[in-house]
Design brief:
With about 400 residues, the chain is an alpha/beta fold. The chain folds into 2 domains: about 130 residues, Aspartate Aminotransferase, domain 1, CATH 3.90.1150; about 240 residues, Type I PLP-dependent aspartate aminotransferase-like (Major domain) (Aspartate Aminotransferase, domain 2). It contains 11 helices and 13 strands. A 7-stranded mixed sheet has the order 2-8-7-6-5-3-4, sandwiched between helices. β3, α4 and β4 form a beta-alpha-beta unit. α7 crosses α11 and α8 crosses α11. The longest helix has about 35 residues. The protein starts with 5 loop residues before the first strand and ends in an 8-residue tail after the last helix. The relative contact order is 0.16. The structure holds pyridoxal-5'-phosphate. The site of pyridoxal-5'-phosphate has 16 residues, from α3. Pyridoxal-5'-phosphate binds next to α3.
Length: about 400
């Protein structure tokens, strides 16, 4: 990352921690003989040991057994495997429940099932982004093959009541998948207390490398693979393991586990400073529940301004922030965020939304500088803006 840019888009991806890079380099440099973890010889056994150490570390982060963790090539793949794999394991059941604010890794998997004849119920959220609990309970049916709700939202940062949702599914005997990609490393996750069937994680949201994910699969949960081949990862995710990436993931989750509380306190103080500074400007409104939100997330609608212009203006001033959804903002073109629409925001409010996400290494000075830049950008853009709000 260039040193002259202040990075405030940690919800999109986090910088690689130096200690993580060190752990990865051991497996990337020519100094170590790199074996295939499935090989029987010593270099293979060494690679296997690395993978298993990382598996134990990921398991510890969510209080699971190492044997319940599978490595994948992304959080997206973990979500796909859970939604499609849980559904495929129960061929007699053809109904799926998701929330209206899921990440595309879940919504598209559900749409894929829909195209093959499944019925999908999308449970709505309130204006604060929190799922309608009774609507969720009513949506569950005897023929529901899988229900999926994210732990925390990638756009607005809202934290869902997953414990209650998991309890409802558990009582009804319905497999429940949780996308914890944004939550992991920011909130304590304990699968011994929350009866989820599967839970998705991604290394690059907690200072690990991009392109490595994991799926927690509770012992006894029935799952069919989506990717088939050499039978790695208990046959549930074939393909030679990304040993260096997995080593990095292991190092990142060890740090996340040990520093969780400290990171949370640090981020919350900065988040609250951004919220109070930014919303003191007229026409700037916080999206999502003010308390039930991730420690690092600020999501704002800025009246009279198009998000893209604001993001580019701030970039020119040396501040990187997100517009719309991290993973989709460059690909969705001019479609308003389904998450904000589900929360009852107008299209204009959705188009004027920016996300500022702080991280463990963000400083108070950077936040102060950002608030100055934000005030300048908003004032200047409003002066020249032709974008008008259609107030309803
Ligand atoms: N789920 C959520 C909530 C996310 O925020 C993301 C990425 O932004 C993903 C899934 C996908 O993870 P990955 O980028 O590892 O595919």
């Amino acid at each position: 990352m260039p040193n002259d840019i202040v990075y405030l888009d940690h919800a999109a991806t986090t910088p690689l921690d130096d200690r993580v890079l060190e752990a990865m380099l051991l497996h990337l440099s020519g100094a170590t003989l790199r074996g295939n973890p499935s090989s029987l010889h010593a270099p293979g056994a060494a690679a296997r040991e690395t993978v298993e150490e990382a598996r134990a570390a990921v398991a510890r982060l969510v209080n699971a057994e190492p044997g319940e963790v599978l490595f994948t090539a992304s959080g997206t793949e973990a979500d796909n495997l859970a939604v499609m794999g849980l559904a495929a394991a129960q061929p007699g059941k053809r109904h799926v429940v998701i929330s209206a604010v899921e990440h595309p890794a879940v919504t598209k998997a559900a749409e894929h099932l829909e195209a093959t004849g499944y019925e999908v119920t999308r449970v709505g959220v309130g204006s604060d982004g929190i799922i309608d609990l009774s609507g969720f309970a009513e949506a569950l049916r005897p023929d529901t093959a899988v229900a999926a709700v994210m732990w925390a939202n990638n756009e607005v940062g809202v934290v869902q009541p997953v414990e209650e949702l998991a309890g409802l599914c558990h009582e009804a005997g319905i497999p429940f998948h949780v996308d914890a990609v944004q939550a992991a490393g920011r909130l304590p996750i304990d699968v011994s207390r929350v009866p989820v069937s599967t839970l998705a994680l991604s290394a690059h949201k907690l200072y690990g490398p991009q392109g490595v994910g994991a799926l927690y699969v509770r012992e006894g949960a029935e799952l069919e693979p989506v990717i088939v081949g050499g039978g790695q990862e208990k046959g549930l995710r074939s393909g030679t393991e990304n040993v260096a990436g997995i080593a990095g993931f292991g190092a990142a989750v060890r740090l996340a586990h040990d520093d969780l509380e400290e990171r949370r306190r640090h981020e919350e103080a900065l988040r609250d400073a951004v919220i109070s500074g930014a919303t003191s400007l007229p026409g700037v409104r916080l999206n999502g529940h003010p308390q039930e939100r991730l420690s690092n997330n600020v999501h704002l609608s800025v009246e009279g301004i198009e998000a893209e212009s604001l993001v580019l203006y701030l970039d020119a001033l040396g501040y990187a922030v997100g517009s719309g959804s991290a993973c989709a903002s460059s690909t969705i073109g001019h479609k308003a965020s389904p998450v904000l629409l589900a929360m009852g925001r107008t299209e204009n409010e959705a188009f004027s939304a920016v996300r500022i996400s702080v991280g463990k290494d963000t400083s108070e000075e950077e936040v102060e500088g950002f608030l100055h830049a934000f005030t300048t950008a908003v004032t200047q853009l409003r002066e020249v803006s032709t974008f008008t709000l259609a107030e309803s």
